[in-house]
């Protein structure tokens, strides 16, 4: 004998969910494919930038090292000079082995005079150094500061 108590009859309101569980809609598939495409593009750009140009890496690294030496000079109150040599560079005024003294790429060179004074004053004069690559002599990067802002990397202007 059937009763009319709630919960005793089959629910027809959710019958559409049982039919839909068999597969995905076109809209759901498009959303998933677009998410995968965006993620793949992000990974591709990240992998391409990881290699980078050796001259770019050396210039960015030099800017960071110069800022580090500048901060150490201000902290200690002692002047620090960056001097480029034939086989690398050195920081005069800092203890030995404090900062790296070699280029990442063997063919990185300094064009012109390679001496920068990094402190201990909070504001130093405008200074710049131009880096070139023996493998690509037509390309040069300038690591410079106006004396107040940090060292930045940009293209060298002739």
Automatic annotation (TrEMBL):
Highest taxon in the source lineage: Bacteria
Pfam family, one: N_methyl
Alphabetical UniProt keywords: Membrane, Transmembrane, Transmembrane helix
Keyword Transmembrane helix: yes
Keyword Protein biosynthesis: no
Record-annotated membrane-spanning stretches: 21-47
Protein name as it appears in the record: Prepilin-type N-terminal cleavage/methylation domain-containing protein
Species assigned in the record: Ramlibacter alkalitolerans
Lineage per the UniProt record: Bacteria, Pseudomonadati, Pseudomonadota, Betaproteobacteria, Burkholderiales
């Amino acid at each position: 004998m059937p009763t009319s108590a709630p919960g005793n009859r089959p629910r027809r309101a959710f019958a559409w969910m049982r039919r839909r569980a068999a597969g995905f809609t076109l809209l759901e598939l498009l959303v998933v494919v677009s998410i995968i495409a965006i993620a793949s593009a992000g990974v591709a750009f990240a992998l391409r930038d990881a290699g980078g140009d050796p001259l770019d890496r050396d210039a960015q690294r030099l800017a960071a090292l110069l800022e580090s030496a500048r901060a150490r000079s201000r902290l200690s109150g002692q002047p620090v000079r960056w001097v480029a040599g034939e086989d690398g560079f050195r920081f005069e005024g800092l203890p030995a082995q404090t900062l790296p003294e070699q280029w990442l790429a063997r063919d990185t060179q300094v064009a012109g005079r390679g001496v920068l004074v990094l402190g201990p004053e909070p504001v130093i004069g405008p200074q710049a150094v131009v880096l070139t690559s023996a493998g690509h002599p037509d390309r040069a990067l300038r690591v410079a500061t106006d004396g107040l802002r940090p060292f930045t990397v940009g293209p060298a202007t002739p």
